[in-house]
């Protein structure tokens, strides 16, 4: 049997973190089993579905490399098929037309609730004589006895007493199919073998199983994954970063990092933290999916991104920085920028994990001349520090070009001048970068070159 999974989003908003993880898990599971991964857009709710959301979902999936193996199916195209199947269930007496008005439904529901019974309409009894004054809905006749079991690959065996199940609606009074019916018919028609989705659908899975049984179809194997929570343990909301995946893309998160991070939200492979899609595919067999909810942690995502940032080829990274960089008014990118970046990059990659942050911190490499100095740093450029900087600029050309010798050279010079490292280090960093927290001096000098260092010292200490 070939494994076929699907991602079935409702196009009512952006592709957010939870949806992306569902798509990813289904994708990994299918690829692991050399199966197929399909996309179905569940757009039957015409009021809430938008083309913009469909586009956002496709764009997000494309960015993550989670495109379907076949063109996406649009559920709204299958409505006639859903209706046909529903009507077959009437013929086999497994579904019935229910003519109750809303107020009658309310009364029965309340009464049954009090008695701990599910909703069952009197119209399930073929002999029921009532007024057929409403357009009927079509309901599934749930069994009166027994229980329903699903063997969930995440939740284990989930068993529900059939006496707890409402006679669910298959066709609404306007003859449109419900989600419950549509999802079962489509999954069957698409030959879906496995469904991994959020555990908010676990209750649906039991009810959907009854539709499968009524139709004499084999249900797929389910895996209901705990929902993602925010870092404070509450339901993920915008406040926690439940924004569309495109927002992460714009921030400079790499798709490799997003997939790497999302795959670990609820699934693990030993202690492996950083891995590629190829590795994830080889490991993701459906086991090791946790049953407790996972927490979305932006800092961790950024840290994972740092790993992937380090893996970028220099030329790509350079281009990405230029793309992220917004040119300051009247300022020309230095012709030396690329060369400087190459020298300082190992240091920068130790400090920054995301291209947007890295780009925002390297104006001192991007432009020639003295960078803008942050306010509190400016106070540290005093007359005394300028004397030190000026005399340093006179000996700089003699400094060796190897880190160890440079350190010895500088230390000798400092002791000759009866100075401490910080007497030089702090003002020099400020003069060269505009900030006192900056990479090691040697790396800075190497990156900028002697001429530029002297120029900046002279500009700041007039
Ligand atoms: N369309 C449903 C949703 O977006 C998912 C249906 C399913 O996975 O069965 O929540």
List keywords for this structure.
462 residues, mainly alpha, Rossmann fold, 4 domains, three-stranded antiparallel β-sheet, binds glutamic acid
Write the layout of secondary structure elements.
Elements: E1 4-7, H1 17-32, E2 36-41, H2 51-64, E3 73-74, H3 79-91, E4 95-98, H4 102-114, E5 137-140, E6 147-152, E7 156-161, E8 169-171, H5 179-189, E9 194-198, H6 202-215, E10 221-225, E11 228-229, H7 245-251, H8 255-263, H9 277-283, E12 294-295, H10 298-310, H11 314-324, H12 337-351, H13 355-360, H14 363-366, H15 375-378, H16 383-395, H17 403-416, H18 421-433, H19 441-448, H20 450-460
Parallel strand pairs: 1-2, 2-3, 9-10, 11-12
Antiparallel strand pairs: 4-5, 5-8, 6-7
Helix pairs in contact: 1-9, 3-5, 5-6, 8-10, 12-19, 16-18, 16-20
Bound molecules: glutamic acid.
Glutamic acid (GLU) is lined by residues 8-10, 42, 183, 197, 201.
